[in-house]
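Case study.
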Amino acid sequence: MDFRGSEQSAHAPGHRAEMSLPNSARAAVKVIVVGGFGVGKTTLVGAVSEIRPLTTEESMTQAGAEIDDLSGIDSKKSTTVAMDFGRISINRELILYVFGMPGQERFWFLWQGLFEGALGAIVLVDTRRLEVSFDTIQYLEDFGVPFVVAVNTFPDTPPYPIQEIREALDLPEAVPIVPCKAPQRNSSKDVLLTLMRYLQSLATQENK
Ligand SMILES: Nc1nc2c(ncn2[C@@H]2O[C@H](COP(=O)(O)OP(=O)(O)OP(=O)(O)O)[C@@H](O)[C@H]2O)c(=O)[nH]1
Ligand SMILES: [Mg+2]
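After joint prediction, the assembly is written out as follows.
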């Protein structure tokens, strides 16, 4: 998938220089960031993006109080209603377009379109509320989108051995599970690199 065409309009007067792709760019790939409500998807996309991320955050209102489970994330004031979008250059040639999905089930009707053309996914999980990401993993498996799991570490997250998380999520050994601090650029970038390496290993296996 190549988005460069869609960015040519960025050369119109007034566009921000940061939106332009470097001339050295050879491949652009779409990846998605999924996971349950409030696990840190918007935070991760914002941390890695080298352009100002597009977000579709709406304030959480009293109307959602009965539906949105804020336990563990009670400082959360807004939620993604459509998607997050960011861009990161992995190297001079490879550009990733990163789409964060809404975590709340009532917006999942948008997912199918956002899955289109995605090469792979990051499933972000919060070990205090692992169950909120179960359905997203099922969704990816049903769609056949390869994924890695990133365990977002909040300040009060108790440490769990990776093997325990793997068993709780019922994931095969081959699926990488890595710890992550979503607000930290390097940590979130490492997760993307893990995904890229995993996709490469799957492609190599297929070509054997
Ligand atoms: N301390 C800390 N706070 C975090 C971390 N990741 C996310 N947060 C906070 O947790 C809350 C939820 O993060 P979001 O990035 O909005 O989560 P989300 O998955 O995009 O949420 P939805 O789009 O509503 O599903 C926000 O208040 C973030 O600032 C983290 O690693 N450490
Ligand atoms: Mg969000």
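Observations recorded in class. The pocket of guanosine-5'-triphosphate (ligand 1) is lined by residues 35, 37-43, 73, 75-76, 79-80, 102-104, 152-155, 181-183 (CB under 6 Å). The first strand starts at residue 27 and ends at 34. We will return to this complex in the next lecture.
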